Amino acid sequence: MLTAVNEKGTMFSLAEKEHQALPKLRNKRFYCPVCKEPLVLKAGAVRIPHFAHRIKSRCFTTEPETNQHLQGKKDLFRFCSDNGYKPFLEQYLPEIQQRPDVLAIKNGRRFALEYQCTPISVRDIQQRSNRYFKIGITPVWIAGGYPFTKKLNNSVYALSDYYWSLTKRTDAGITLTSYEPANHTLYVLSNIVPLTSKKAFARLDRIPLTNCSVPLYLQNKVDSFPYFLWFKERKRWIEQKVRYGHIGHDRFLKNVYESGNNPFLLPAVSGLPVSYSESFASHPIEWQFYIWIDCLQKLHDGKKISLKYILYKLQQRIDCGDLLLRNLPLHDQRNWKRAVSYYLHLLADLFYLRSAGEDLFVKQKMISKLSHMDDRTEEKNICDLLVKNSSTIHPDRKNNKCFLFGGQEK
């Protein structure tokens, strides 16, 4: 802990004290602001000065903290102060029994900064975030170290469910922020687009914390989306699915085969990249296949179909377990419906559908299966169109403004 209550009953913070001034505090008494138990001041030469509970304490705040976490909290506290926020370090909130690393207040708005150096369950992130939202506080999750499990190749990163749960949408697309106090660097992964459930295309910015401001503007450049890589990954996903999947346990393979289809010959429009597709834990091939098989395959040319009906049919697939939604605590839980809407408009751009009013479409031509495994004609046509119209991936991107906290979320 970096904060405690002194003998006079007022809050005392080590974040605002120089190391040489600490020996004078050894004879002072300090208490935990939560459980009121006496604390021990530890100010050695190795670890960052901090308060600790005595052995066998039952206070919930007694979890051990690394130097990375202690120093990160101090740096973020000062960062908030330098940017015009009124920060409180380790402020206990009795109404929800939580203590954010930094509580930052500005213009009547409150933000809870959680500097998370070790992975925790998505459920914990969801519950803690919901408690903050319940009392009008916006949670801001910042990972420790790098904002990804590992870098796979140029602009492709491995993201676990834990990292996905820390993402949010801003004007710079989907973003994930982390901080490394060892080099005082903020890392921002932006324009995140899932290639598979565990891999994502993204742009990484490294920014010294001293150069950061609120809101944070990233450099004015947009990396072009690798559509050819997307289709390569799409093919690889199908191959892996067939090779390692089991029809008795894999619901997608079972539904494909039982509908008389071959996974290698599915329509080229099943598995296209669209905005908000991160809302699905299932691959785009899966949910777009169900739109085709449940709604579009038997629809005659010239007939109308509504977005509402398609959402209803997909909801049935979700309810029975054929499709999985991703748990994203900081996102709008309705975003999967936006993904479906963007997909239908993409099919209209490809002339399979025609928009016939708000949320209503007319089928213009048949969506055909591939004739053979090496048939890439339609795939190439689709790829060329997507290159010309990248709005299917970042339709809501207006600028490179990345709100660490505050601002307009998407």
Instruction: Determine the mean pLDDT.
Output: 86
Count every helix, treating DSSP H or I runs of 4 or more residues as helices.
Answer: 9
Give the helix proportion (percent range).
25-40%
Taking all Cα atoms into account, the compactness measure Rg is 25 Å
SSE pattern, N- to C-terminal: EEEEHEEEHEEEHEEEEEHHHEHHEEHE
Our estimate of the beta-strand percent is 15-25%
User: What is the overall shape?
Assistant: elongated
Runs with pLDDT <50, length 5+? none
Distance between the termini: 34 Å
Main β-sheet: number of strands, strand sense, barrel status? 10 strands, mixed
Q: What's the total count of β strands? A: 19
- SS content category: alpha+beta
Summary?
This protein has 410 residues and is α+β, with helices and mostly antiparallel strands.
